[in-house]
Amino acid sequence: MILPPKQRAALDLKPYYFFVQVAEAGSFSRAACTLSVSQPILSREIKYLEELHGIQLFNRNGRGISLTPAGEQLLVHARSILRSLSLAQDELRALSGAQSGSVIVALPPLFGKALAIDLIQHCRREYQEIALSLIEAYSATAIEMLTNGVADIAVLYNSPSVSTLNVEHLMDDHFVLVGATGSLSHFDATEISLEHIAGLALALAPRPHRLRTALDHAAREADVRLTVALEVTGTGSLLELVREGIVFTILPFSIVRAQVEAGTLDVRRLSGPFLAPRLFVATSMQRPQTVATKVVLSVIRQQFRRSLRDHSWPPNAVLGRC
Fold first, then answer.
1. Does this model's pTM top 0.90?
2. How many Å is the maximal CA-CA distance in the chain?
């Protein structure tokens, strides 16, 4: 079948690759630096796409650029097309039996950093032909990335039931009260109840964050009114306030494990009617898993098993059946 000239032109993927880079960088100059091309070349490629499709893709103003509604829609499709092409290349390489290819993993913020270091070190040591990319994302965003083909694997907290995802339980975590170093020394016990902390100034994620929902449910069940002094979206900012001794917070232990082991935060396990924070690993059922994806999945499972075996997690953590 011979395609008309306009359809043949639309199959040239280089302009779409440049378009994705500009959209993600939010700047022609930053994208040009990343791609090691001149800014006029990038501008010419974007102008070509706009003329090809007959629609404006970016709003340009003195403060920079932003995607138009048409640009936002094209970005979703362009990412999916480029990712599908990358997967096709990986699958063709896999036919030779080689453990190679690219894998994008979405990880929970902060907690993901410790896992990310382990993943990178393991893959560099054992699977040098696998190109690993890591993205920090909360569960809702990570699920969207899996659905849109932006990510191949996602580690999630309390994963909802989604018919298009393969979801495996990794482990059950538990909630801890988190304070600055030495700030919890007046609690003699290593495990305390919500009643013990009712008067403490807490900083928590705003509703309808999944972890906040679980905390609100537990407080209602225990008939305890928590003192929420601040609502903070970013976990990094939240923990900075805690380290400064301004507030306390409540988080799954896995998020603060590294800081606790480093001695920069104190924690006490919380007892009560909690819906336990559970960690899952998910992949999309809409795309076949490449050899590289299967390898990285196996490494993630090994990391969780080793963490429990080496007592990096506190007592009573429950390993999932992977």
1. no
2. 78
Reported as a single tens digit per residue, the pLDDT across 243-257 is 999 999 999 888 888
297 touches 104 (CB < 8 A): no
- Phi, psi (deg, nearest 5) at residue 233: -80, -50
pLDDT bucket at 147, cuts 50 / 70 / 90: confident
Q: Give residue limits of the domains in the chain.
A: 5-76, 99-172+278-319, 175-271
* Domains 5-76 and 99-172+278-319 fall in the same CATH topology: no
Tell me the two tokens of residue 35.
Answer: 């791609």
Q: Who contacts 96 (Cβ-Cβ below 8 Å, separation ≥6)?
A: none
CATH superfamily of this structure's domain 99-172+278-319: Periplasmic binding protein-like II (3.40.190.10)
Class of domain 5-76: mainly alpha
How far apart are the C-alpha atoms of 137 and 145, rounded to whole Å?
A: 9
Structure token pair of residue 14:
């280089």
**Which pair of structure tokens corresponds to residue 142?**
């990570």
- Looking at the DSSP bridge assignments, the partners of residue 267 are 178
94's tokens: 């896999």
Q: Where are the alpha helices (DSSP H) in 36-150?
A: 39-53, 69-94, 111-126, 139-148
- Sign of the Cα torsion 31, 33, 38, 40 reads positive
How many other CB atoms are found less than 10 A from the CB of residue 79? 18
> What is the residue-averaged pLDDT of the chain?
82
Question: Has domain 175-271 been given CATH number 3.40.30.10?
Answer: no
- Residue spans of alpha helices (H) in the chain: 5-10, 14-25, 28-35, 39-53, 69-94, 111-126, 139-148, 210-222, 235-243, 253-261, 291-309
Tell me what pLDDT residue 316 has: 41
Residue 2's alpha-carbon distances to 7, 8, 14, 49, in angstroms, are 10, 9, 21, 22
